[in-house]
Amino acid sequence: MTSDLQPKPLPFSKPLDGISAKTLEIHHDKLYAGYVAKSKEIGDKLRELARSGTAAGNATYSELRGLKSAETFAVNGVYLHEWYFDVLGGNGDPAEAPELSKALAEKWGSMENAVAYLSACGMAARGWSVVAWDLKAGRLKHYNADAHNQGGVWGCIPVLVLDCYEHAYFIDYGADKAAYIAAFWKNLDWKKAEEAYLKVRGWTL
Question: What is residue 94's three-state secondary structure?
Fold first, then answer.
């Protein structure tokens, strides 16, 4: 349940290469924790409204419409940040993810091409760049999102998540988003990404 959400600690303790402790402090301890708090608040208000028997919907504006829209923004803000933090803290060596590396190379021609293409997608995204296992297609797919609750595809399980919002890099790089994306690859924990991929690979609907 949404009200049971609690902020998760960063899954790594070592300093990152090119992503500062200050950025992580603001990103994780304030922004991400804020999404958790708002998710709980919205969930509690929705439960109260549902149980009151007074819920009334209107597609132009209503309290219910506002809460339901905010719910997907806040909860996706929690989940996407957790997937992002989960794959940081590594040494950036794709050899530690043999199956995922093989799948990425097969899909985009080589690992070099895959990283180049996914980096370009990150540059094109305003919010998130996500490599996911598509349960309907039964294969890896890539999707960009300009907001937490826009651009994603239902039935897709994230495997690699890159936060492309300015808050993820502006302290360290200013407007140099490409340098931040390069730092993301240097800090990627491919072992964690491999675990996520192996867990969902083969799932279909």
Answer: helix
Q: What is the three-class DSSP state of 161?
A: strand
Contacts of 103-112 spanning 24+ positions with Cβ under 8 A: 103/140, 103/197, 103/201, 104/131, 104/140, 107/139, 107/140
Q: What is the DSSP string of 123-152?
A: HH-SSEEEEEEETTTTEEEEEEESBTTBS-
44-82 residue pLDDT tens: 999 999 999 988 989 999 999 999 999 999 999 999 999
Cα–Cα distance, 158 to 148 (Å, whole number): 13
With 0.85 as the threshold, say if the pTM is over it: yes
Six token digits for residue 65:
């419409």
Domains and CATH numbers, the chain: 19-86 (1.10.287.990), 94-200 (3.55.40.20)
Q: Specify the long-range contacts of residues 142-145, CB closer than 8 Å, at least 24 apart.
A: 142/117, 142/118
Residue given tokens 């302290």 in the structure block: 171
**Cβ contact 145:125 at 8 Å:** yes
CA atoms of 113 and 79, how far apart (whole Å) = 28
Q: How far is CA 131 from each of CA 2, 9, 118, rounded to the nearest angstrom?
A: 25, 23, 8
Q: Give per-residue pLDDT as tens, 123-147.
A: 999 999 999 999 999 999 999 999 9
Helices (H), the chain: 21-24, 33-52, 63-86, 98-108, 111-124, 170-173, 177-186, 190-200
